[in-house]
Predict the structure.
Amino acid sequence: MESRTKERLGATLQRLTDDEQFDTITVKRLVLESHVNRQTFYYHFQDKFDCLQYQFDHKAQRLVGKVTADNWLASYLSLFRYIDAHQNFCHHVVDSRAYSEFDDFILETIDLIVERLKQSLKQACPQLHFRNESGLLLF
């Protein structure tokens, strides 16, 4: 139940931000549009920025899915297809005080893809070893 409420609040925030600037959206309006009381909102989130972060994290998990050597590029492209399909939403976030949340979404989604690809390669090729920039063995 908790998960569905958070998903509803996140989806409502995205829908509202699709039509107007993120900065103009209030928690009061968000809870009215979500049909959730204000106390429930604050049970799940500290503020609307926290809700936006949840929405971005939730989208990243859904966009990436299982990453393998065969499909990593499709996972990577899904991020940019999402941005293209939700241009108004992304634009309204970037042009707000929440612009850093959008930057974090992109970087964290790419990081998630890389980490899942590394896990997949490690399972498929146990003899394969990765090193970081300093030459330290990662696995």
